[in-house]
């Protein structure tokens, strides 16, 4: 009998393989490099990174399965007693070269405590630099289908959770146009694991068609500059607010694997605001007022 | 009788003027732009920013004097009861174009509570991209002189505090080569205010000679790339650990004034390590093992 942790880890590794294979196909030649690493308390991970690709300026598809003891502050944050834990996850972030192709993030994780409690968490969200409404609707539609296949109540809840989670309070702006986000998902393991697999298997469908559609969209220096400035917001979110980043650094995970989410090149310009009515401004308006993209 | 808060604020504004004037002289023509802003609970600030200068790619010299009520979490962090407060400060960050000129940061602040408690905090620290030991010694020497002029016990304590404060635990690296840092400095107001003025008046002397010495040091694409990568560490420190940034964002200060400290252009490259024995490696070695620069 294979433990729950092992079942989940094995699925994440298969998903990592199939996802990287499809992304390499898109890149026609550029390959992921792989680093395997060991966690100081037990377990480890496989970090796969692609840099300076034709489509992706930087991307990472990482799996990890670690064990350890919750620090007091981590236990407090999880609202449980300090004890041993195991955590398995897959994490993906892709930063495209073209500002016409959105950055995408997806992550699924399984957490188990010594006292027997366990839960799943995860989600997927899209961060465009220019707004193509069809792309946003496509992304949300795929994730709604994944949710609906397991529980028709999930999508509404997880879409809203995503809008709330990927929010920069100091900017009063969402990081992107949302997707789904969930955490502390407990219940029937078989059903929830099926949900996680349905999600994991939906990622490529949610994103690759957008890449293919926008690949030949023209852009120049102006659009690249805007992308670099917006990537600054991505950094602000990940370092100021992201729980996964905080958990990883606090539990002394592998820094280069955790911070692979940071974009390859970023700019901060003082008090920059796009001019009213511009395409850049159209994006900002949507980030300030999250929308319902599908019915 | 002028209140302590007003005296300090007035000094910070004079210091802002004289500092900006000297930096503009260095820039021979490029000027700071000024934005005045109002805090939602009372008071406000003057943000002065220089971008795309000849010497400074981005720099800010900001003063603020705000009033408000401590949130529960801020009161907890300061280990006081929630109550009204006033805070005056000056904050400077300069990001040079040339990787041969170090980034510099200085900040002085005065904090007063409704219950009468007050304290000063502040410091100055240097973040080089390439190590010129003479420059580092000069910087430390000036700050030691400023400390010694008021209290011969200060420098040792505040130099160590700086090494401890500007440290990135996830990287096991200092942000730079140190300087001084102090907080919760309480006692005789006249003496401590004199210390703050001695410090404030030492800033230009601690930094401008370094700029002038390194201005014609040659550099190319390789050195610029290293500077951009190292600036990534600056961002990591400021967003993950800096108390001033956290306080500013949490007390809903003006975001663009707080985040003026972020560099204009930054890179993250996966798992980049300079080659052993290189000039880049020489810097990293010093950041991993803080030194005594002067006796």
What does the average pLDDT of chain A come to? Answer: 96
Strand content of chain A: 25-35%
Q: Order of strands in the sheet with the most strands of chain A?
A: 1-2-3-4-5-6-9
Inertia-based shape of chain A: globular
Low-pLDDT regions of chain A: none
What's the quaternary structure here? Answer: homodimer
Spell out the helices and strands of chain A N to C. HEEEHEEEHHEEEHHHHEH
**In whole angstroms, how far apart are the ends of chain A?**
42 Å
**Can you give the helix content of chain A as a percent range?**
40-55%
Gross CATH architecture of chain A: 3-Layer(aba) Sandwich
CATH-defined fold name of chain A: oxygen-dependent coproporphyrinogen oxidase
Describe the structure in your own words:
The structure is a homodimer of 295-residue chains. Chain A has a 7-stranded antiparallel β-sheet with strand order 1-2-3-4-5-6-9. In chain A, strands 7-8 form a two-stranded antiparallel ribbon. The first copy, chain A, contains 9 helices and 10 strands. Helices cover 43% and strands 26% of the residues of chain A. The model of chain A has no long low-confidence stretch (mean pLDDT 96). In chain A, a hairpin with a 4-residue loop joins strand 7 and strand 8 (173-174). In chain A, helix 1 runs parallel beside helix 5 and helix 3 (133-148) runs antiparallel to helix 5. With 295 residues, the first copy, chain A, is an alpha+beta fold. Chain A has one domain: 3-Layer(aba) Sandwich (oxygen-dependent coproporphyrinogen oxidase), CATH 3.40.1500. Chain A binds chain B through residues 35, 49, 51, 58, 60, 170-171, 228, 232, 235-236, 239-240, 249, 255-256, 259-260, 262-271, and chain B through 35, 49, 51, 58, 60, 170-171, 228, 232, 235-236, 239-240, 249, 252, 255-256, 259-260, 262-271.
């Amino acid at each position: 009998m294979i433990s729950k942790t092992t079942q989940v880890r094995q699925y994440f590794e298969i998903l990592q393989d199939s996802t990287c294979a499809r992304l390499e196909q898109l890149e026609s030649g550029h390959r992921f490099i792989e680093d395997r690493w060991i966690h100081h308390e037990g377990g480890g991970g496989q970090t796969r990174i692609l840099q300076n690709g034709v489509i992706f300026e930087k991307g990472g598809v990482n799996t990890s399965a670690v064990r350890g003891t919750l620090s007091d502050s981590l236990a407090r944050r999880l609202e449980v007693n300090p004890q041993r834990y195991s955590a398995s996850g897959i994490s993906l972030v892709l930063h495209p070269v073209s500002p016409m192709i959105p950055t995408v993030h997806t992550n699924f994780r399984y957490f188990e405590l010594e006292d027997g409690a366990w839960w799943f968490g995860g989600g997927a969200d899209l961060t465009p630099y220019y707004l193509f409404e069809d792309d946003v609707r496509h992304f949300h539609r795929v994730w709604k289908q994944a949710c609906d296949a397991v529980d028709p109540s999930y999508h509404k809840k997880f879409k809203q959770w995503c809008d709330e989670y990927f929010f920069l309070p100091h900017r009063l702006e969402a990081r992107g146009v949302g997707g789904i986000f969930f955490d502390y998902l407990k219940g029937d393991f078989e059903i929830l694991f099926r949900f996680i697999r349905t999600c994991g298997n939906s990622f490529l469908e949610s994103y690759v068609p957008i890449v293919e559609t926008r690949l030949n969209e023209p852009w120049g220096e102006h659009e690249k500059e805007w992308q670099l400035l917006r990537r600054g917001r991505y950094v602000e979110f990940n370092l100021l607010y992201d729980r996964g980043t905080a958990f990883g650094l606090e539990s002394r995970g592998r820094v280069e694997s955790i911070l692979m989410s940071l974009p390859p090149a970023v700019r901060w310009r003082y008090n920059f605001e796009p001019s009213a009515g511009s395409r850049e401004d159209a994006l900002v308006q949507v980030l300030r007022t999250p929308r319902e993209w599908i019915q």
